[in-house]
Structure of Lipoprotein:
Amino acid sequence: MKIHLVSGLLLLLITASCSQKDATKKVVSFYHWKSKATINQQYQQALKSTNTHKIYLHYFDIVSEHEANWYDDGIFPTYVLKEVDPAYQNFEIVPVVYITNQVFQVSNLEVQKLSNRIKDLVHQISQKHFKKDISQIQIDCDWTESTKYAYFELLESLSDEFDLDVTIRLHQIKFKEKTGVPPVKKGTLMVYNVGDLKDFDQNSILQNSIVKQYITADTKYPMPLNIALPLFSQTVIKNKDNKIKIINSVDRPTFENDKHFKQINTSQFEVVKDTLYKGFYLSEAYGIKLEELAVTEIVDSYNTIKQSKLITNEILFYHLDKNSLSNINLSELVEKL
């Protein structure tokens, strides 16, 4: 009798332990943000190692190209998804539509007309590449206090047809009384591009000290949030007029070994002699900032979010890209998150 009782208790403990592990298991997804959704061995390895089942696939941008006139409202889709590898049909796809804030500053904006155009194009792309309609989409927009009413009206219209997820920036969490809370049931907190590109003492991609300026232990938000984290690095070039250009990669050995550049500190360089770099003409005195991410910085920033009162769900990495996946130890990162 005692043997059976002990065996039963052991089985119960093992089952409980497994249940706890399952409950805390990380759910990881990826963004794909290119007009041609290709797949290669590197992508496949990243998806397999993280047990990813969902891809947030960029479908198109909506931009305001010119002032409204007699012929049109100046609002058009750009960077429309052109090709999709059949391998993506094995994943749950969440279409992503990026809308610039300027769209909602257009005078006499016809929100319902814009909503219908977005619905139609999403369905067209889904049918073309996946032979079906997709019910869940993500809307990505860095709205402001002055544009919230038009943006929220659009979300309400889109909600009639789609299960919506919307992106939320750090400032929209901290200042939610001003920027408002979108009329949706779930969101994705964008924990990247948090700083100032022009501030060469910052890593504008991600810096935990900046995240802490917006998120505290008492921070709340009235909807569950996925957490979007960066994998990418970038080179920031600042000219004499303080204007910025970005190169979506970092080639540290070139700056450290080429005599056209002088190293100021770990991340900063100065052009000391005119030169060409990746198609950009760099003049003497231009500033160079290398923005690279360490696993520890991503983990620390993520922990700042987790230690708040925000309700969090899956982890979403930006993004499936050769340089991004080459510059970060993905296995180590996922293990530490």
Observations:
- Residues 2-23 form the longest helix (22 residues).
- The mean pLDDT is 92.
